[in-house]
Amino acid sequence: MSDKHEISLTVNGREHTLVVEPRRLLVDVLREDLGLPGTHIGCEHGVCGTCTVLLDGASVRSCITLAVQADGRAVRTVEDLAHGPDLHPLQDEFWDKQGLQCGYCTPGMLMRAVEILEHTPDPTPEQVREQIASNLCRCTGYQYIVEAVVAAAPRLRGENAWDPTTPTEAKA
Amino acid sequence: MTAIERPAPPVRDQDKTRTWVGKSIRRVEDPKFLRGRGGYIADLVRPGMLHAAVLRSPHAHARIVSIDTTAAAALEGVHAVITGAQAAELTAPLPDFGPDPAKHTWRCLAADKVRYVGEGVAVVVADSRYLAEDALALIDVEYEPLPAVVDPERALQAGAPLVHEALGTNLAYERSFDFGDVDGDFAAADVVVRDRLRWHRSGGQPLETVGAIADYDPSTGQLTAHTNSLSFTSYLFMVATTLKMPVNKLDIHPVPAGGSFGSKLFATKPLVLAAMCSQAVGRPVVYLEDRVDNISNCDHHGSDRVYEVELALMRDGTIRSLTIDTVDDYGAYIQFGVGHHGNALAQVTGPYTIGSVRYRVRAALTNKNQQGAYRGFGSEVNNWMLEQMVDKAARELGLDPVQIRRQNFIQPAQFPYFIPTGNVYDSGNYDAVLDEALELGEYDRWRAEQVRAREEGRYIGIGLITAQERSVFSATEFWFWFDEPGAPVTSMPESVTLGVDATGGITATLYSCAFWGNSPETMVAQLVAEEFDCEPQDVSILYHGSKGGLPATGPGGSRTTVMLAGAVEGASEKIKAKARRAASELLEADPDDLEWVGGGFQVKGVPEQRKSLADIAIMLHLFKHSFPEDMESGLEESQVFDHPYTTMPSADRKDLGVFYPFMGHACHIPVVEVDIETGQVSVLAYAAVHDCGTLVNPRSLSGHIVGGTAQGIGTALYEEYVYDDEGQLITSSFLDYSIPSAMEVPELRIGHVETPSPYTPHGIKGGGEGGRMMAPAALNVAVNDALAPLGVRVTELPMTPDRLRAAIRAAGAQQR
Amino acid sequence: MKPPPFHYASPTSVSDAVTLLVEHADEEPRVLAGGQSLVPLMNFRLAQPGYLVDLRRVAGLDTIRHDGEVLVIGAMVRQATAERSPEVALGAPLLAEALHYVAHLPIRNSGTVVGSIAHADPAAELPAVALALDAEMTAVGPQGERRIPAAEFFQGPFTTSLGADEILTAVRLPHVRGGHAFVEFARTHGNFALVGVAALIGVENGRISSAALALSGVAPTPIRLHAAEQALVGAAPEGAAVSAAVDVGTAGLHPAGDLQAGTTTRIDIARAYLRRGIERALDRALDRR
Asked: I need a labelling partner for B599 at 20 to 30 A (CA). Which of A141, B482, B550, B666 fits?
């Protein structure tokens, strides 16, 4: 019964054209059609946040997003964080602070943390804790995740260091 | 207590300087998980792999009249549809350690009737999970609903609907045990404190569900499987029996699990379903539960108990005795028997010098998903019950909650201490833990704050509890329930092989060792590094499948680190013994003149006369003729490490022997505020001090304390599998089953006291479950402390707004 | 938990979208905006639409604009966009505050303001806000455009007066003077609310001059507490008036009990949060915060 649709999406900077059934969930297309198993499935009803990816830079739950809804848009997954052997500062801090135990919620948590630090480059632990409440973790009890995100913040601000040629307001 | 022989292991001198044990190094497991390359079961793809989905019963109790699979089987992309009746031909019942498996028979799919909402009745194999689910919708099942039995106490009454007709009753097990002189102690006591307590079932709910990929090769009869539930390899022959295949053609490989908390302990059903399907279609088949599958049908719900308890004590607070009468709602099957009560009996008297205990347990069967394992495995419930009673006694006698505990503590000089049941507590220093917790938790400051808050009309409570966290179970706790057990097994080993390659690099092979989010690789890497003076990250770790593997058990009962430590120690000793001999040949020195220093053997007093492990290894690998006739090439040794301290129960079962000897301890002090208008509980502060002996990686253990406490908060306040009066599972997804988020879990202040075990390598005790073993008790005591001025005492978990508001209303408190 | 098969289209105009709804009327067509309510239902196979009309490519639906004293929010405006919008902060601060409570940011990044209103979950925040603000829904169908007042829009749980061949293209929120407050009680952070309160209270010359109180979670639809509003208007903005309003407002409530809370507890919570909502709105009206 189901028709198929051609969609184009940019995933981790690379453009893909796919033909998919409209009912295919974005998380399944990422994992199976694009060979990116880093995004995990936890609940398939949009509660746990394990499947979090960035869609045009904003965090979304890929288990309740149809792949066709991502047509023409850009997706970023955990596979895009490290540069070759170099871990992203968030990954490195999760490692250093033991912000993971089983690792299953970690990709979704990392992508959410990317967004948190983009919105709030200098967060307090309380702010981080409130923001990561969107993502469930069953192992860590969240404490070391908060520590990891707080520790990563200055390292990411360092990457966006003050540029004297750009007006200050533009960086708000 | 009956006097029986108690051979204990040798007492070790644990006083040592350690390099790697005790260091909070980064975990060696993490890099792959950080990059999204964890290799979980859903990440594995086999060429030609097909997907299975299970059709589940919407009824709690019903006869299966007929199943029509014609339309489903005809759907394009469907390769097989197997009903429960067909599965009963293809497979034998599942491995079952219950009291009477022939009569409470448990199968991978329901054959004649369904016994709980969610029980599987058919399985479809299709090209994709999407298609398999489409096919499920086309299966036509005719049910004849039967009356459901839901309440465990009603299940035990005459005339209740029977879950298993063959059993003839819903009482799967009953026995009363007397340890010590209970009647005498009660007669001598001044006061008896009574209560009725209710602990409702919650469960591990890891974010990753259970799954398996099975690949049956019809040409060889070989079945190769990958699963995120691999444990108890010594019992895997039972899975082969279920699959009606030879044991030596079965090979099961472990795959990292996205959490377990017990729920992936020997979870054989998904594996059997996948294997049965693969055998049927001759292609690899993956069966991976989705969330609804798991919530309704995981076979691992937690304890579900009613308690009637009496605590006998003297007016000065000295506790004499305890009688416990508990009904445990096991659901429709009882795969682990009443082993959960063994966990309770291991530490039933807590950290106190209570002289006698009566323990009556009744296992009730009802129309619900069965119990399995959940962090604590039934001991956390006992902790909660006991601390509730101590708290109630303190209130009734007007005694200080800190003081009543101190005066009943087992003292350091009394260890090793045998409790009335016969189990031993190897070591402890309970005052030290309490002292640290009081300081860390700013107890006095919060008591003052509590007074101030009450004047403002706010209800703050402090929940101080002191309780035990046992580790490393023996096999006996699964069968000492019976005077004539069918299988009085005594093996519960863990195994490690250490191999030194020609460059001196070390590889550790683990058997049946599940990665659940615990840190087996980091533990082993640190332990091996300690033995061989190398860097932990240079140790290579392998996970061996079941075939050709040494016997092993895997995680459970906080046993992993201790047991791996024993296996590593044993294998290391063998490696060093051979290396010493080899070195003595190479250095032309007497073996007794050599000492191990800095990663090699050298002549005592002559450090230049030295051979590193690498020097020795390459010679052993390649230069056979440099060594005596009887020395084999290579440098690889294994250790099957059996439980180091198990003793047999007495014939009359008045003494259960030693079965859970490495006894940790903790003190938790949460501070809560109760909004009496709504029944909402907030946690304002939380201090947790644990004593798990010597810590291998303190940060890792702390992480488990926080995570376990978070789950304990869930159990205490939010989480419950709710079945209505018809047996419908109301909490069928995360929309209704509320898992704590980061806003429900406070920041914990964590303290460690390290009282080493005298019996284990380095003095390590297990501690992975500890957080959850304490938190429900602590939070209940805290809420009762907050509501004491209103005359409210809560005795049921979870403490939902409904339950708290009902209690507050009943106590006549007026809303502002 | 995979959705069943369906047909799908993403038209580029409202009229094309309406045409699709009409043409496929016997295939159980549904409109897709953010999908944060619909797709989970489809994953559970509780909703099985045969035809999905996706609004994501329809021009002109993602704007927030002023039409006189009315704030008009288009159908594809994401909740997160509205939350951050200076126009919303100025023109409908009650909406901005309520949006903080809607699930979590990742849901709000996809979910739409209008979509949540159209979904009409009795426990949801935005329908209560629409009711408190006396909002109007703009609906477009084969007969053209019509405006539906909020008071007539919500018919029952997940049921509105929108026709099966109509699309909600915007919600129109009148600017209401006075102090606003949105408060809610949920078991865990970001979870579905048991009770939500949307309050707007005006104070002039030392007396309460206007009051709008809407509750979610206590009835099959969000409800306005007209009796409580009347009790407040004309009264001095003090404790006695608040208590009276709470008593009157919760007197007639008969919320259905469920897993999260029984009827009595739900009323207890409604009383507590109604009082908190009124107090906060009064604080704002009197500039006390």
From this structure: B550
